[in-house]
Amino acid sequence: MKRRKLLTLAGLGIAVSCGVPMSQSTVLSTVLSTSQLALAEGKPMQLLTEFRIFADHYLFFIYDTGVDPSPDSFYSDPDEKRSDLGSYRQGYITNGRTICFGTDAHLNDHWIEVYASTQVPAFGKAERVIALPLRIDSGRVAITNLLYLTEPMKQVDISPGVWTVYFLAFNLGTDRLFDRGIPRPESRSGKQLDRLTDDQLKANWELERYQIILVPGFQTPVGVLHGTATVRGA
User: Fold this and answer.
1) Is 133 exposed, middle or buried (0-12, 13-18, 19+ CB in 10 A)?
2) Distance CA 90, CA 191 (A)
3) What average pLDDT does the chain have?
4) Which InterPro entries does the UniProt record give (predicted)?
């Protein structure tokens, strides 16, 4: 699907699901003004949390803690007949209260930073950027993988209301098995260990990692803003 068509469909679908009236002409105008976004480059953002996540099945979730984090429709509906917005081929699925985000690297081990910002973030060196609104009634956002849906790995408190979630993905498809000169931790016996420590994973910007940036209100445009319109291998 061409990028402009993807953004148009994404904008219409999310606007309806969040109760925000938006005409097709409005969506098209926001698509055309993508390059004119007021990026907050150089402006401070508040770091809410950062952590390591094992994205089993190549996905993780961000959701309002007051709702079902993993609705059946995310799995039962085929991509071409999906009732929720997005598809696994596009790298995300959302029903407006839960967002399922797809990953690339085979080892599924990633560092995630979560920020709050008053402005749309600068994309910087991100290879892929997705923006989606998320309605938070509980005042708490959870982030977790499929293994820990009932006991989320991280939770942050934010004001209730509609927020726009920006997913910035870096170094897609790259993990510690790639030979990129990344130092490995060593055991006392001198034998190299395969798993990087949290500090090493955090410090290695050559590996696939993510920034999640929460901006208050419904920001436009939405959908895939930067990078390919489909995930690798889709």
Assistant:
1) buried
2) 41
3) 76
4) ComJ_sf (IPR038691)
